[in-house]
Amino acid sequence: MDILSMTAVSLGAAIKKKEVTVREAVEAALDRIGEKEKEYHCFVTVDREGALGKADEVQKKINEGELTGPLAGVPVAIKDNMCTEGLLTTCSSKILGNFIPTFSSEAVRNLQKAGAVILGKTNMDEFAMGSTTETSAFGVTKNPWNPEHVPGGSSGGSAAAVAAGECFYALGSDTGGSIRQPASFCGVVGLKPTYGTVSRYGLIAYGSSLDQIGPLCKDVTDCAAIMEIIASHDPKDSTSVERKDLDFTSALVDDVKGMRIGIPRDYFGEGLDGEVKKAVLAAAKALEEKGAIVEEFDLSLVEYAIPTYYTIAAAEASSNLERFDGIKYGYRTKDYEGLHNMYKKTRSEGFGAEVKRRIMLGSFVLSSGYYDAYYLKALRVKALIKEAFDQAFSNYDVILGPVAPTTAPKLGESLLDPIKMYLGDIYTISVNLAGLPGLSIPCGLDEKGLPIGLQLIGDCFSEKKLIRAAYAYEQARGAFGRKEGK
Amino acid sequence: MAKQYETVIGLEVHVELATKTKIFCGCSTAFGGEPNTHTCPVCTGMPGSLPVLNKQVLEYAVAVGLATNCTITQSCKFDRKNYFYPDNPQNYQISQLYLPICRNGKVEIETETGKKYVGIHEIHMEEDAGKLIHDDWEDCSLVDYNRSGVPLIEIVSEPDMRSSEEVIAYLEKLRMTIQYLGASDCKLQEGSMRADVNLSVREVGAEQFGTRTEMKNLNSFKAIARAIEGERERQIDLLESGEKVIQETRRWDDGKGESYAMRSKEDAQDYRYFPDPDLTPIVLDDAFLEEIRSRQPEFREEKMARYKEEFDIPEYDIEIITGSKHMADIFEATVALGSQPKKVSNWLMVETLRLLKEKGMDPEDIRFSPENLAKLIKMTDAKEINSSVAKEVFEVLFDQDMDPEKYVEEKGLKTVNDEGALKKTVEEVIAANPQSVEDYRNGKEKAIGFLVGQTMKAMKGKADPGMVNRLLKELL
């Protein structure tokens, strides 16, 4: 049996049927990691011992009927910005290079309760700031489809690990596209849930009002199953929402008849790669052929999303990252004279260039005399963007468009031109500003053989519509995935 | 020659709220635990931790706002105040800048110059910081986060006060109001109430305010009064010698009776306040405000007026007793148990105040129960014990709050009312003190006092002195 080619849900079923043991599944993933990590570098930390130990413990609970969920025993990888008790959690930053949390994030706890076995912590852009996973302090991750290209980011390690078969699914976090864009670049499914659906407790904050945890996985069925496990109302997170509609797998229905799908013209203008455009419109066509009503419309305000996002996210980040000061945990500079020199040297040495850039940007927009002109104005634009979406969702069930303007760029290209990298977030960012759910699903390959992603955007709390549309599209599209070569 | 100056004072008063747990986590607010034992990921700023507002903090803040005639901001929120310091684990303090919970209040104060209102600009909620402890042995600083996240309200007055008397009256008024609400014990010495004084001077009749300074480290009403006098003099001296007052924060050294500059306005940090995205806006509906309003206690002025109506006790006693909500509660409960108000008041005014003073305690620290005080009064009323025994018993009651009836029984302190037994002792005393008997018979009235004392001594204090006196006179 080829364990590695299984989806998470099919592996879970095989474990339940005793066709595969948890240990076999974990060993298969660890073997793949051992074989491919040198090349792809998806992980910051691989917890070999922990995973094998956990495998036996989980197997016992499955055998005793204590664990019956669909993903019990399935090995998972966790983005390295989610706290894992006793396991190094670095945010891919030197400043947290030695940080071992005393507690686990709520999403991870939910997974553990469902019998997940954590393989390790995946690489990311430092503090989730970046779109390529190249800003990591611990080396770049490579795209398994073509290692000369980036996997996207900031959840690049998670997306690449799923694509490379180094895990069966992974958790990522999405502040401006950090799940959907790497999912698109790596040819996997990724979902950024409605803000408040998955607890942020234990997620090391980047932009608190925008951050959401979500799954990266092989298909839409896995996506729905993972969501049912990680979504929960958490009293420890004031922004957590109590929802009654968390039965995401009930939306795995191959039927989009009458579903109203809007295509924003603004998402198909200048800057969009021709091959990406073609593949995305073909996907829309496929849904139309299944009975969906597809229409073009004007979303408006799209060009304001990027400056608005970089103002709000940077402002929040500049404050969120203040706690990394060398006093309580993490990196502290070796030689210093007095407190302020310690702060200065610790943070200068501990943070990378992109993080410093955003801290400076955020400190500037919050500083006295600029607050109204930048931060408050950005909040107003954010409200207007939400209104534009509200307007659109009075006409449509789902908005369909590309995830990113291009397929995965080559390694090194983006860092030379950060503005260009920021512009690459144009189709994903407004979803975070409006707090909406967004799903990324592969819809083809470009001439270079790199995956193209289709983005489905829904109104708040309408993940089930996205899952239904994506599932129907997936049925029409047929199998997608790469065979690990050689 | 000499110009006349007016002092203009506004206060920023921090009050530690009496919640059991911290403002954004479930850790205990209890004082005096081992360092870093009342802590968790939230109040130590661990990565990934998130704050959740303690609702009791809201209730106390609204109660104080209503009691000080504020407008309650029914849609308010928390902001982050960003600054780096090791006692502040996140390097930002969660506070309120843009939409504080209470605004535009006022309280009435009374001084020798009459009554006036002091305006309250705003009241906001915030978290306290931890404590830095310097370790001289290791030559390093250590941080204790037990206080980190203890809830505070900051009450910012308008610059409406003109003298230290007014400042003290305003602080007393705030303290009394907040203690009556049970929102804080407001102890300056222990830091559960802290006042920073903003002070400027201007020539009498001037319309513009002068440049103000902010004075910190004021741990008692006396220190506040001294600091105000000192700063007023300092600013006037500067102006008289043609110099300018610099806007700055100063630290008062009460021992030396002088202040020194901590930082000037030019060094002021930009706190980069912005709404805390981890906490959702707080919406307080009318029903919530109504509920808090309905739970407001009888405040001091109302209580004083009622006491004057209901109880025949001196006005001075009323002032002292209502000066502590706790003492007033004990007074009322004891009276409710059937004791005569005048007698209860006497026990509180004389013996209780004496013992509090001796032991350096506050009225808030009184531990004896109204039930036991009522029993003691009942026993003295029934002449089961005499007044000196009662005082002895009360001292024990003050410390241990035991049942005085049992105590008197066990210790055998009951007054001997058996005339036969007493007569025998009196006769013995007369026989043993012929000189005093002689003196008495020779017209030295005072000598009987000595004989009474001897009898009481022989009775180990358990006799009714009135009866002893009568018997002595009869037998002599």
List the topology elements.
The complex is a heterodimer of chains A (486) and B (476).
Chain A lengths: L7 H9 L5 H19 L2 E4 L1 H16 L11 E5 L26 H8 L3 E6 L33 H8 L5 E6 L5 H7 L2 E4 L19 E6 L2 H11 L29 E5 L9 H16 L3 E5 L7 H16 L17 H13 L2 H14 L4 H23 L4 E5 L15 H6 L2 H8 L4 E8 L5 E8 L4 H15 L9
Parallel strand pairs in A: 2-3, 2-4, 7-8, 7-9
Antiparallel strand pairs in A: 1-3, 4-6, 5-6, 5-10, 9-11, 10-11
Helix pairs in contact in A: 2-3, 5-6, 7-15, 9-11, 9-12, 9-14
Chain B lengths: L4 E12 L38 H13 L3 E2 L2 E2 L2 E4 L9 E4 L6 E10 L2 E14 L3 E5 L4 E5 L6 E7 L6 H18 L11 E11 L9 E4 L4 H20 L7 E6 L4 E7 L9 E2 L6 E2 L2 H9 L5 H11 L4 H8 L2 H12 L4 H19 L10 H12 L5 H14 L3 H8 L7 H14 L1 H8 L5 H12 L6 H11 L1
Parallel strand pairs in B: 12-13
Antiparallel strand pairs in B: 1-10, 1-11, 2-6, 3-16, 4-5, 4-15, 6-7, 7-10, 8-9, 11-12, 13-14
Helix pairs in contact in B: 2-3, 5-6, 6-8, 7-8, 7-9, 9-10, 12-14, 12-15, 13-14, 14-15
Give a written overview of the molecule.
The complex is a heterodimer of chains A (486) and B (476). Chain A is of the alpha/beta class. Chain A contains 15 helices and 11 strands. Chain A has an 11-stranded mixed β-sheet with strand order 1-3-2-4-6-5-10-11-9-7-8, sandwiched between helices. In chain A, helix 4 (106-113) links the parallel strand 2 (75-79) and strand 3 (117-122). The longest helix of chain A has 23 residues, at 371-393. Chain A is globular and about 65 Å long. In chain A, 62% of the residues are buried. Chain B is α+β, with helices and mostly antiparallel strands and 476 residues long. Chain B contains 15 helices and 16 strands. Chain B has a 9-stranded mixed β-sheet. A 3-stranded antiparallel β-sheet of chain B has the order 5-4-15, with no helix packed on it. Chain B has a two-stranded antiparallel ribbon with strand order 3-16. In chain B, a hairpin with a 4-residue loop joins strand 13 and strand 14. The longest helix of chain B is centred in the middle third of the chain and has 20 residues, at 221-240. The model of chain B has no long low-confidence stretch (mean pLDDT 92). The interface between A and B is large, with 43 and 28 residues.
